[in-house]
Design a protein that fits this description.
alpha+beta, 32% strand, three-stranded antiparallel beta sheet, 26% helix
């Protein structure tokens, strides 16, 4: 097991066989499909640090929206995305309320006026993900929301 990382992603920094063995030995805890946290680590800290990467891992064709696009980090335990279908993915539900929330926005990722490719970095390295432009974020924030008021 790579001792440098507290988050293991199947296909990124581990494979499913190693993840199975580590989970069996209680060295890691499954927090979502293909996502594992090292046992004993604070899920809130890990979600704050790796939340954007987890969103990219779970929803590869989505873009950051709402408050997440504005701050470029998780906000109040949430990462907000725009994608082709609405979906809420819980991360480490045993230890708190951390979610990746995808709204049905149908992002036109090729239109640079609406979405830009942003660079992020975490302990696993650098990666890129589409992010709503500031103008598009303001339009998203004008949408009425009954649920997930933390989008604003």
């Amino acid at each position: 097991m790579d001792e440098r990382h507290d988050v293991l992603l199947v296909g990124v920094n581990t494979d499913k066989h190693e993840a199975y063995a580590l989970k069996r030995d209680k060295q890691i805890v499954r927090v979502a499909q293909g996502v594992y946290f090292r046992t004993g680590k604070d899920a809130e800290v890990l979600f704050e640090l790796y939340g954007i990467r987890l969103a990219k891992f779970c929803f590869q064709s989505a873009a950051l929206t709402h408050s997440t696009a504005w701050y470029r980090k998780p906000v109040d335990g949430r990462v907000f995305l725009g994608g082709d279908y609405p979906y809420k993915k819980s991360i480490a539900p045993y230890e708190g309320d951390f979610r990746i929330v995808q709204s049905m926005v149908h992002p036109k990722l090729t239109d640079e006026r609406m979405y830009e490719l942003a660079r992020f970095e975490d302990p696993l390295g650098q990666f890129e993900m589409h992010c709503a432009t500031p103008e598009m974020t303001l339009i998203h924030l004008m949408d009425a929301t009954n649920k997930n008021v933390e989008k604003h």
